[in-house]
Amino acid sequence: MNINHDIALKEYLHKYFGFSNFKWNQEVIIRNILAGKDTFVLMPTGGGKSLCYQLPALILDGTAIIISPLIALMKNQVDSMRGYSMDDGVAHFLNSSLNKTQIQRVKDDILSGKTKMLYVAPESLTKDENIQFLKQATISFYAIDEAHCISEWGHDFRPEYRRIRPIINEIGAAPIIALTATATPKVQNDIQKNLGMLEASIFKSSFNRPNLYYEVRPKVNTNKEIIKFIRNNAGKSGIIYCLSRKKVEEIAEMLKVNGIKALPYHAGMDSATRSGNQDKFLMEEVDIIVATIAFGMGIDKPDVRFVIHYDIPKSLEGYYQETGRAGRDGGEGQCITFYSYKDIQKLEKFMQGKPVAEQEIGKQLLLETVSYAESSVCRRKMLLHYFGEEYPEPTCNMCDNCTHPKEQFEGKELLQLLIETVIAVKEKFKAEHVANILCGNLTTTIKSYKHHKLEMFGEGAEQGVKFWNAIIRQALVMKFLDKDIENYGLLLVTQKGHDFLKEPYDLMFTKDHDYEESDEDDISIGQMGKGNTCDEELFAMLKDLRKKIAKKKNLPPFVVFQDPSLEDMAIQYPITIEELQNITGVGVGKAKRYGSEFIELIRVYVEDKEIVRPQDMVVKTVANKSLLKVFIIQSIDRKMDLEDIASSKDLEFDELITEIEAIVNSGTKINIDYYINKVIEEDKIEEIFDYFKDEAETESVEEALKYLGEDEFTEEEVRLVRIKFISEIGN
């Protein structure tokens, strides 16, 4: 088949895929495969990698074996290929999800020449029965997708990927195309070495995605920030990445209760639910998918408008690949990451117990991530530098560091001192060690190498380690220094660095970000606005209304709502029964029984005063039906002695009473008569009950004891009868 002619290849492209032109270097890659040459393709997400093996597979005789790591990805690609063809047999996958009949059909289609593409996981490829079968088939070429899985330095290392080459040798030689969307020079070399394709033609597209906007934010009030962002981008598709399955479930649930269409996706879910959630996202039945990094490899949704990292990824490659799922159609793509150094420390802890070499690699990759997050250099420059590419422009104007530049300072002497120090330690140490020398920190390593005797020891002490790390990072990006990745990141001086030492010149450095340490857990609704001052005018109006309702119902005012609840209303301005249930000390029962007049008063007040309510930007937390509260209510229903309830939950008796008070104060009716009648005399119960009914102006136990007589009544007795009173009269 002669397909060297330009027009012929474009005809095939149009015939099979309906496109009239190739993107970037797709055409030369395809010609290379058609010529039977080994091919290495480095192409960012959205560049059209899959077409590079799909089109030649359709043109050539035989079946192309496409090795891919995820079942979801295979299914997605097979469905997509069948959509381009009249015959479903054109593409198949072979994996653990198929039954015997389905497997037989796949084999028949391959041997009859129908199947042009067979997708397999590396685990399926290693099965002896599959190897024996594939030996009978005509194989056009092997495509290894997500090839970075081969390298331990890649962000998604899979040991079974390292066994691919011996199996190819066993099945039968054919050209190989390895494809990845992310690989540093180190990873690229690793892949080629392992696949025995060091002589392969290499096609490398630029890693620059000009339509993506990169931003790193401190991890403060994260849930609130995420909801605010999503509401400002209503109707747009987005992915939120979290590191743990538990966090994925929590965030998805939190978004749902705040009226956002979101679903979770992680490897712990059963496959039917997981692929169902993925399909709903693709079909736009939901706007947001909250996922672990298991989601999205090869998922071809071109119009994802934002990618949010709730947790910073373990490596810059992972970050690049995940952010790369935004704006694949060339349109808007916002990439927002929430960063706290505490997350990095957590990730370091997870590495403990792994082999030392693996820990070293993991730490190196994490350090790169910290550098990226804390640096105030153009984020695009930093990312491209990491992938061995230079960004020539002074600024990109599409990242937070370019749109909000940090303060700059003259750095000629600092750079001289840094380069001299790297040379003085014979280019055999990492950034942290060099920074410690400059700061004068007498660490064990510095002592053992006698580096405290160097003349530059302590020369930069007034600036601190963090400052020197920032200088080192910027010197790396500016190419005065380089990092020996093979040797765990030892600092080397480049030719440019040596030239600078001979003839120093003025140059500017930028101050680093100093992200405040913060608790990632947001303030819960009950605490919102604790530091806020309450609206005194509204508070007074609410108290008047409470008095009026209490009089009408012949109740003490505190039975309707207690003061802390009214104060919270005067901060939050709830205007629906649902919002009222989020107020301190207000449960469902109480909100429904007394709430309507209060929310009506607040609604009118908010309209008249044109108040912007914090509630409009408050994140509803997922209702946490405390297991303890449920246990207490159920135990009281079973008439268990309160002492037994307390001891079974390891509570002091006083703590148990506090829990029961919270339950009845928020509007739940419970009956502890069986216990009270056993431990308090009947006339005492009556006296305390009547005091709260007829005399009390507040719910205060102290005032009750003063009135009733501290010698005759105990605090415990008053509290128990007050629970009975509020439950019977108020709830």
Task: Describe it.
- Helix content is 49%, strand content 11%.
- The relative contact order is 0.06.
- Helix 14 packs antiparallel against helix 15 (356-374), helix 23 (536-553) crosses helix 25 and helix 23 (536-553) packs across helix 27.
- The chain has 5 domains: 6-204, P-loop containing nucleotide triphosphate hydrolases (Rossmann fold, 3-Layer(aba) Sandwich), CATH 3.40.50.300; 212-350 and 364-387, Rossmann fold; 412-506, Arc Repressor Mutant, subunit A; 525-617, HRDC domain (DNA polymerase, domain 1), CATH 1.10.150; 627-730, Orthogonal Bundle (Arc Repressor Mutant, subunit A), CATH 1.10.10.1390.
- The protein is α/β, with parallel strands linked by helices and 731 residues long.
- It is globular, with a radius of gyration of 33 Å.
- The model is unreliable at 517-531 (pLDDT under 50).
- A 7-stranded parallel sheet has the order 3-4-2-5-6-1-7, with helices on both faces. Strands 8-13-12-9-11-10 form a 6-stranded parallel sheet, with helices on both faces.
- It contains 34 helices and 17 strands.
Helix content: 40-55%
What is the subunit organization of this protein? single chain
> What would CATH call the architecture of the largest domain?
3-Layer(aba) Sandwich
Given as residue ranges, the uncertain stretches (5+ residues, pLDDT < 50) are 517-531
Our estimate of the beta-strand percent is 5-15%
**CATH fold topology of the largest domain:** Rossmann fold
Principal-axes geometry comes out as: globular
User: What is the CATH top level name of the largest domain?
Assistant: Alpha Beta
First CA to last CA: what distance? 85 Å
Strand order across the largest sheet? 3-4-2-5-6-1-7
The number of distinct β-strands equals: 17
| Total of helices | 34
Structural class: alpha/beta
CATH superfamily of the largest domain: P-loop containing nucleotide triphosphate hydrolases
Radius of gyration over C-alpha positions, nearest whole angstrom: 33 Å
Number of individual domains: 5
